[in-house]
Amino acid sequence: MQSQKNTPIELELTSNLYEWRAFLAITQCGSLTRAALSLGTSQSLLSRKLNALEKMCGVCLFYRTGRGMEISDCGKRILQSVKDLLSNAEQLELAIRTQANEPAGVVTIGSLPSLSHPLIAKLFKTVSSQYPSIQLKNLQGSSQEIDAWIADGHVDVGIVCRDERNLADNEDALCTIDNYLVGAVGDVLTQPDEIELAQLDGLPFIWSSTQVGLRLALNALSKNHQITLDTKVEVDSLPLIRYLVTEERLYAVLPIYAVWEDVQAGRLQASRIISPVMQRIVTMVFGKSKGSSKAVSTVRMLIKRGIEKEAGCGL
């Protein structure tokens, strides 16, 4: 009886799952830049991997447009098969690793950019030292984007800010935060510990594109108090906000944890906004976990502990 063998094309197409992970990341993110960030690699390397995959398949998987990457008809037809392939490979790996009865697997966290440095960076350090079999992935976006990622199973845990106190069933309150007017060193308005909302009238502001909820709340307050917020620029980068506040003497409205280290080091100033106080709730959102439930539970526990430890450092 003749033994059955895999054909060369079968071996070639499935021997390296990284290319298919790249395919899925580009589909979900819609651009090479964001996909590279989600995979922790460079855009140039990801582009080469995609080109190699398309050459291997002999078809175009994406259309390159001015708005990013749009999946082709052929790509759409194989998308579900790719998802199944990666899911089965993940489950096989988890089944092998969890034989040791320790948390293992990939846990994807969606967080606001302002939270990523003070909380997520320390979480990575804790996980790598105490739970080496857990691999963390962090995606940054607005609260609305993170809610969507939770709903479609793109992330396991989300850390967001809310204005309302009626939280959903799949949400835990972590802490309540105040918002601050952030200015350059030597700025008169941000030297006192507190500043009234009315004093923000006419100031030149820089905003993060992820501050959707905060800006809606602030716009409503501004309308009620008959003040004008003069938006000069909107960016995606928190470091760029810090730089432009310092160099261009712009102002930002941020929770203190986003600039805690800068304020403590004397690189920026911040005054708590009062009359009225602008408070928001930091919450942890969770949905149907795509990763190992034990690993996700472990990460959720570590996030809560991390928030408690940071209580005196801006959270």
From TrEMBL:
Protein name: HTH-type transcriptional regulator CynR
Keywords: DNA-binding, Transcription, Transcription regulation
Family: Belongs to the LysR transcriptional regulatory family.
GO molecular function: DNA-binding transcription factor activity; transcription cis-regulatory region binding
Boundaries of every HTH lysR-type domain copy: 16-72
Highest taxon of source: Bacteria
Record keyword S-adenosyl-L-methionine present: no
